[in-house]
Amino acid sequence: MLEIRYASSNKDAKGYDTSRLREEYHIGGLFQKDDVKLVYSHIDRMIAGSVCPVEKALKLEAGKEIGAEYFLERRELGVINIGGKGIVVLDGQEYELDKKDGLYVGMGIKDIIFKSIDSQNPAKFYINSAPAHVAYPTVKINIKDANPVHLGSEKELNKRTIYQYVHPAVCKSCQLVMGMTLLEEGSVWNTMPAHTHDRRMEVYFYFDMDEDAMVFHMMGEPQETRHIIMRNEEAVISPSWSIHSGVGTKKYTFIWGMAGENQTFTDMDHIDNRDLL
Ligand SMILES: O=C[C@H](O)[C@@H](O)CC(=O)C(=O)O
Ligand SMILES: [Zn+2]
């Protein structure tokens, strides 16, 4: 249920071939029917994964890997539903999540259950979780409650809106920051011009893609770039030393989540396009 990924050094990553890059950073096999799939990255101890309840309800449980009595004993959680209508039950209280609805769940919630309303159109819960030290209130976040940041232009093929869901402008969290980026029709690039933020790691999750569509996800140090091919409903870990940017062959949407030293979204180190190698 919980797969461990250790942190990798920028010095080692330079020598990785395609399969090793994928082994370290790419996350596939998400959203298996009636299954919880989680990847525990040792980079900032971020957990990313999927909960896909179809016929039955699924519980989020703590394994030995996190050494706690229950999943959120010392963690916080961000959830965004990318499927049909679903319900998250937190210590008995129900939160209904439509497609693109999010939920911040604070530390200390013991019992976490995920359900679909219609098994013909099941909910698909994408989750990020980071270590926490304070119990902040649970908040449901509709895309209309999210903080929109408009970026890019048609000319640069990167016109998009970044919806900040779990972010200081919307709700309190210990370190988790999470949101969703929607591209305008015809725009194919995300996060280009690229940036790094050595203070925080990031995980990108690409979805709403046709089966034959691809996103070439750009990663690596700015002068040592690589790509990882992403298909629908796949995620990729971005170490803090790495750029994270993608270009799609067809339309796509993605969810990003960060954890680390701070929550200052605007402190990224921008890279001039002329400096990438
Ligand atoms: O640090 C921030 C993250 O990389 C994303 O918010 C960027 C993003 O979604 C985009 O530019 O499209
Ligand atoms: Zn970033």
TrEMBL record:
Residue sites binding Zn(2+) per the record: H195, H197, E202, H244
Family from the record: Belongs to the KduI family.
Organism: Geosporobacter subterraneus DSM 17957
Named cofactor requirement(s): Zn(2+)
Reactions that this protein is recorded to catalyse: 5-dehydro-4-deoxy-D-glucuronate = 3-deoxy-D-glycero-2,5-hexodiulosonate
GO annotation, biological process: D-galacturonate catabolic process; D-glucuronate catabolic process; pectin catabolic process
Keyword Lipid metabolism belongs to the record: no
Catalytic activity, EC: 5.3.1.17
The entry's keywords: Isomerase, Metal-binding, Zinc
GO molecular function, one term: zinc ion binding
InterPro entries: KduI, KduI/IolB_isomerase, KduI_N, RmlC-like_jellyroll, RmlC_Cupin_sf
Cross-referenced SUPFAM superfamilies: RmlC-like cupins
Entry keyword Nucleotide-binding: no
Function according to Swiss-Prot or TrEMBL: Catalyzes the isomerization of 5-dehydro-4-deoxy-D-glucuronate to 3-deoxy-D-glycero-2,5-hexodiulosonate.
Superkingdom, taxonomy of origin: Bacteria
Cofactor binding, note field: Binds 1 zinc ion per subunit.
Protein name from the UniProt record: 4-deoxy-L-threo-5-hexosulose-uronate ketol-isomerase
Any single Pfam family the record assigns to this protein: KduI
Pathway: Glycan metabolism; pectin degradation; 2-dehydro-3-deoxy-D-gluconate from pectin: step 4/5
